[in-house]
Amino acid sequence: MRVIRNPFSDDMNREFCRLLERNYNDIKAHLMWQNDVKKTVKTIPEWKDKIDRDSLMEVYSRKHSLDKGRTRNLNHVEGDVGGQRLSNDVVKIRKILEDKYGGEVVVSGQFYYPPTGFMGWHTNCDAPCERFYITWASEDKKSFFRYYDYEKDEIITDYDDKGLTVRQFNIPDRPPHLWHCVGSECDRLSIGFRVYCNVALDINTFIELEKMLVGKEGTHSNLRTDYVTKLINNAKHS
Questions:
Q1: pLDDT tens digits, residue range 185-214?
Q2: Which of helix, strand or coil describes residue 213?
């Protein structure tokens, strides 16, 4: 099970950060204005209990894997919430990904997580593909992407940096699924993309991954999942 962090070049990351950050104040102001009437931005004191190991075990063994997180505290930032500039900037990011990978790219979600925001455990197994989540956080190490590593039987909490964090991962349509969730103690914007094409690792990520695997016992069997092997092979020929 592999989640690849910040797979793009520094220049590309700076552009993604600029596009998300410049929309943050408008989104926050609109949501606070809206909240005065509709009370849509909530504080959930027990939010951590919704995304712990016990909450995973409640849904993990079900006959049908949970595609979407049914427990959540977040706001969709589309249409009137995000405004036209956000819509245009999301299109810019989508086109950057399409140009890089030469295939179809679909926006899969635009979310604002308030402090105590979260999305419960789920797999997205009804829409298998390569996914990228581009995230902007207002504080360092105060929000995170959390997932269950099936191979290690371990829950991994991957904290966001202040500013931009990008994650790339594969969503399979069969077990072992990528069970994952999100939590935040700060303001967090997250834009998701489904990429339907052959995705290759950025060359710098490929080099770092090779360094990590070289000399490890089982490098060419246990450590290299089919998913990682495919990415490495794509990188070698890209």
A1: 999 999 999 998 776 556 566 666 667 666
A2: helix
Q: How far apart are CA 68 and CA 42, in angstroms?
A: 20
Report if pTM > 0.85: no
**pLDDT, tens only, 226-237:** 555 556 555 544
- What's the CATH superfamily of 4-199? Jelly Rolls (2.60.120.10)
Max distance between CA atoms of the chain, in angstroms, equals 60
- Which H or E run includes 211? helix 203-213
Cα(21)–Cα(166) distance, rounded to whole angstroms?
Answer: 14
Burial 124-134 (b: 16+ CB within 10 A, else e): bbeebbbbbbb
Domain residue limits, the chain: 4-199, 200-238
User: How far apart are the C-alpha atoms of 191 and 19, rounded to whole Å?
Assistant: 11
